[in-house]
User: What shape does this take?
Amino acid sequence: MSSTSLIDNPPLASQAPAAPSAPLSGPLEGAPGIVGLPMAIAGAFGLGLVNTGFVPAGAAAAALPTVIAASAVGLLLAAVWACALGQNVSAGIFVLFFGFFATYGTLSLGLINGWLGIPSNQVVNAQTLWLTCWLVIFVMLTLVTLRLPWGNALMLVFVDIALVLLLIGTVQGNAGMINLGGWFTFAFVAVAIYFYIDVMWSQTGGRGLPLGRPLVR
Assistant: This one.
């Protein structure tokens, strides 16, 4: 069976009720990763296509419907579901990814339509600020998940590397670095697909996939 992962963690013992309660049923039963993971995969894959140049620069906004209407909304729903189950860690992770995709969509639409009042000569600074903020968040998340199976940290390391490369490429105006960041986004997608298979197989009566041993005990 698979080990505990970011998207399937039981409540801590200290969070358990003092008295036994009836098992959860109906909408309060299940694994929120079934919703959250594919929605994150869809948005990340779209961003990867944009950053690697598979989508022409003039059509970069084509990824926004998937990022906003699928990834952001789906991850928010997964976070609410995880909260209902008492899976605090999972809920926190889903909210962070929701914030990432939601703010990406907000920044992109704001810059395209001039909603944010950012002058054209400050667009790069705005993008740099956004990338820096999320790089700090995801590096922090990577470090605090070292007590989970190492597959979790691997997935987040790919996010960290992608953000570093995108940040360098944005600051320097280096299309090659942005392109490379897009490929590391695909690496994140590959690991996330592995996690999704693990959740689906586990929830349909099969054996979960191995996720590795914790790096820190």
User: Anything to note?
Assistant: Residues 37 and 196 are 6 Å apart (CA to CA). The two ends are 20 Å apart (CA to CA).
